TrEMBL record:
GO biological process: intraciliary transport; non-motile cilium assembly
Superkingdom, natural source: Eukaryota
Keyword Cell membrane on entry: no
Name of this protein: Intraflagellar transport protein 88 homolog
TPR repeat placement: 57-90
GO molecular function terms attached to this record: kinesin binding
Region (Disordered): 175-196
Lineage start: Eukaryota, Sar, Alveolata, Dinophyceae, Gonyaulacales
Amino acid sequence: QLCRLREQQNLLDQLNVDLTYAVCLNLAIQHQANDNDNEALTIYTQIVKNKQYPFSGRFRVNMGNIYFKQEKWTAAIKMYRMALDQIPNNVQAIRFKIMRNIGHSFFKMHQFPDAIDSYENLLMHGAQHLDFMTGFNLMLCYYALGDKEKMKSGFLKLLNIEQVGLEDFDEEELELGDSPSAQKDPARTLAEGDDALREDIKRRQREAARFIVNAANLIAPVMEKTPVAGYDWVIDSLNHHGFPRIGSELEIAKASYFLRRKEFDQAITVLKKFERKEPSPMAC
């Protein structure tokens, strides 16, 4: 409207391309934030087609995100790939995030081999760009294809994921923050230093634990010749990588397997291991 007004008033010499670019982009972002998807797509389309706007093709990522939210997976993949062509190779972090989104789109369409190809690109550079959700989705792809060896390697990669802020996390503090008394007494929480950042770290820690528990329960019964051997492998891997509490959760799952098969002596043997352990509720 501003451009048309300038044309009507013969003020085209005052047209500022950079300012118009910034205004249009901000308007599209605000439409997207307010779920006005069609309006946002219309403006994004105008931006990416205007060769006067620098790096405008990268905003196809935003268009892909809108299509992804609308469950238009094919259109989302198309936008992500077009955006990927606009991102230079030295901007690895952004490129890996786009590849991850392409993998998520293929995963939603149950095209697991294509999803695996996209996800495995994230394993480059020591898998530093792999997050827990992506790692778990990769595990599901391997599970769907029945690839037991890849399930093992994928599970170990899931256990080795490192995220900023989770390295020095104290499980004792997690129990305190999740306890009913801490939730009912905000003053106590503040007194013990639980700020918004710490709460976010706790939330991400619980989320990571949930992905690991679900992955472990999924693959343990099927990855070895017998379910018991599978549980043993998973439990050993969890303990070796510093997840003893989740290992205890899998011990209980193993005992439940014996109970379902009415192998009560085996179940009792497993459960007796907990007699000398203090109760430690799972944080997931």
